[in-house]
Amino acid sequence: PLQYAVDREEGRFSPTFGLSVKPGVDWLQLFATYGKGWRPPAVTESLITGRPHGGGAENMYPNPFLSPERSKAWEVGFNVLKENLWFSDDRLGLKVAYFDTRVDDFIFMGMGMQPPGYGMAGIGNSAYVNNLDSTRFRGVEYQLDYDAGLAYGQLSYTHMIGSNDFCSKTAWLGGVTQTVKGSGRRPPVIDMRPDEQANAATHCSAVLGSAEHMPMDRGSLTLGMRFFDRRLDVGARARYSEGYSVAGGATVSQAGVYPADWKEYTVYDLYGSYRVSDELTLRLAMENVTDRAYLVPLGDVLAFTLGRGRTLQGTLEYQF
């Protein structure tokens, strides 16, 4: 068995800058942000090893040379705020923003890996590796708010753009060898030498997990009302996603192991709060009123991890 002694220490400065401008009118604001990020691999990503479950020939291998993720993110957009539009003290807000995050050395669990030594790559061999391509997450966010005091509402929607390729070296640690045979009718193996072709080979889209798929488009609508001098606030929320599906055959994982099939869903929530006094507030909320079974955007289809079912929560807040 391979043994590793890992002792690494790294650090990185991750700045974020923002700028907002009102171009001569009070109701319009232009904004932009830019930042850098850095995420070192988790201990489990670097050193996980063994079988992920009982039985079978699947194996997880460590990767002590896993590189940290490095990201650059920027966002541009505008805010519109209009007051006293139709009624006294009402307010209308609009936000549109484009975001773009590019990640180098994105960490994902690759399948079909080839460990060091003599042997072959196998679909059951998995390890956390760095993406050889840049991974990009970009999209557009829309948000509309209206508040008239007695009644209010909010509409939001996020649209994702594009897709990603996930590629890695098949022999992620190198060290693959091949036999050197002697002469004769049945030549014996007399030595082992590095297999340069296997050590240099790369493959793409053999991903275990939902990382290879972009998050689904999603949106929400909230409507609420206030009573008793705004002490009582009640409302309803609808959460929607259009789903995401891949027919299969496009990649190794989709065709044989990991079909993407997130169904469209709409989930309804109810909430309410009552301010008993300046110090005491009571809150009650019911999530997923119809107890709908659904998979959240970027949910794990392989493990069939469903979103939360009907859930009732109550809180009491006292400030002093």
Automatic annotation (TrEMBL):
A Pfam family matched in the record: TonB_dep_Rec_b-barrel
Origin species: Pseudomonas aeruginosa
GO CC term (a single one): cell outer membrane
Subcellular location: Cell outer membrane
UniProt key word Transmembrane: yes
UniProt xrefs under InterPro entries: Beta-barrel_TonB, Beta-barrel_TonB_sf, TonB-dep_rcpt-like, TonB_haem/Hb_rcpt
Sequence similarity: Belongs to the TonB-dependent receptor family.
Domain TonB-dependent receptor-like beta-barrel: 7-289
Keywords: Cell outer membrane, Membrane, Receptor, TonB box, Transmembrane, Transmembrane beta strand, Transport
Highest rank taxon of the organism: Bacteria
Membrane keyword on record: yes
Main localization category: membrane
An example molecular function term from Gene Ontology annotations: siderophore uptake transmembrane transporter activity
Annotated protein name in UniProt: TonB-dependent receptor
Topology with respect to the bilayer: Multi-pass membrane protein
One annotated GO biological process: siderophore transmembrane transport
